[in-house]
Amino acid sequence: MDFQRFPVALGDRVLDMGCGAGRHAFELYRRGAQVVAFDLDADELAGVEKMFGAMRLAGEPPEGATAETVRGDALNLPFPDDHFDKIVASEVLEHIPDDMRAMGELLRVLKPGGQLAVTVPSWLPERICWALSEDYHTAPGGHVRIYTRAELEAKLKATGFRVDGHHHAHGLHAPYWWIKCAVGVENNDNPLAQAYHKLLVWDIVQRPLATRLAERALNPLIGKSVVVYFTKPSRPPAARVPGAPATAGQEAADAG
Predict the structure, then answer these.
(1) In this structure, is the dihedral angle defined by the CA atoms of residues 18, 19, 24 and 25, taken in order, positive or negative?
(2) One Pfam family of this protein, by short name (predicted)?
(3) What 8-state DSSP symbol labels residue 241?
(4) Rounded CA separation 8/6 (Å)
(5) Which of 72, 73, 106, 112 is nearest to 89 (CA)?
(6) Any idea what the Cα angle at residue 63 is, between residues 39 and 49, rounded to 5°?
(7) What's the domain range around 154?
(8) What's the burial of 256, exposed, middle or buried (CB within 10 Å: 0-12/13-18/19+)?
(9) pTM of the model as a whole
(10) Which residue, among 59, 12, 70, has the nearest Cα to 36 in the 3D structure?
(11) Chain centre distance of CA 77
(12) Helix (H) or strand (E) holding 60
């Protein structure tokens, strides 16, 4: 995510829906959010909880930040209406058969005016992965669809969100997954896959200028993920009851 487009303020209540191993939840915690890391996988959540504890011991989160894990189903989020200031749903909707119902739950628990950041695999890199390997997308819990950005935006607009823009990410990662699909997704001993994985780890840790520039150029073409930002519109003003006195705001609106 681009935190200039998706700013997180100290004390913001943020849901990481489908948090997986917790990468986004950890960064949100570092930025001072009150984070809820939500997932169906109990083993993943146990690892996230341990990392939250390690971060506290290391003094990484600022004072006022909080973090907790919650296990549950994306189709029935265990939170009240209008509860979160922001929501992240990263690489999760492509796993859910009833994605529209999950989108409706995201709308329900987000506050009016709140922001949603969604990432899904980009259409072209994902289509190549599906063509190279059946195992890539038929494993239990795997991807059940390939989104175009237009489809993703249309579904979330139909749910009630406003689209605020998009960008692509992880242009260097797409070739790694093509290699994995070509040699076998579970084949971790392939020397080419191992070498490329080492390159990605080196890039993530060192962030050299050359690879940063290369990824920036590759992102619009073969970025592994597309990131789309949405807002839940504020509620419209309540209709005036006939015969009731107008409020100051209604009088101003009528005058306009």
Answers:
(1) positive
(2) Methyltransf_11
(3) P
(4) 6
(5) 106
(6) 25
(7) 73-126+133-170+223-232
(8) exposed
(9) 0.87
(10) 70
(11) 16
(12) none
Nearest Cα residue to 227 out of 178, 175, 174, 170: 170
Which residue is associated with the tokens 């990662």?
173
Which CATH number goes with the domain that contains 151?
3.40.50.150
Q: Residue 92 falls within a domain, yes or no? A: yes
Which structure tokens are listed for 28? 């949100």
Pairing between β-strand 162-169 and β-strand 225-231 as defined by DSSP bridges:
antiparallel
Tens of pLDDT, residues 38-59: 999 999 999 999 999 999 999 9
Residue 146 covered by a domain: yes
Q: Which residues of the chain have pLDDT under 50?
A: 237-242, 244-256
**In total, how many domains does the chain have?**
1
**Kind of pairing between the strands at 110-121 and 225-231:** antiparallel
Q: What type of residue sits at position 217?
A: A
Question: Helix, strand, or coil here: 91?
Answer: coil
pLDDT at 236: 56
DSSP assignment of 9-44 = -TT-EEEEET-TT-HHHHHHHHTT-EEEEEES-HHH
In a domain, 213, yes or no: no
DSSP state of 134: S
Closest residue by Cα to residue 16 from 62, 30, 216, 113: 30
What confidence score (pLDDT) does residue 219 get? 95
Residue 156 forms part of a structural domain: yes
Residue 123 amino acid letter: W
Cα–Cα distances (Å) from 137 to 94, 142, 202, in that order, read 10, 5, 28
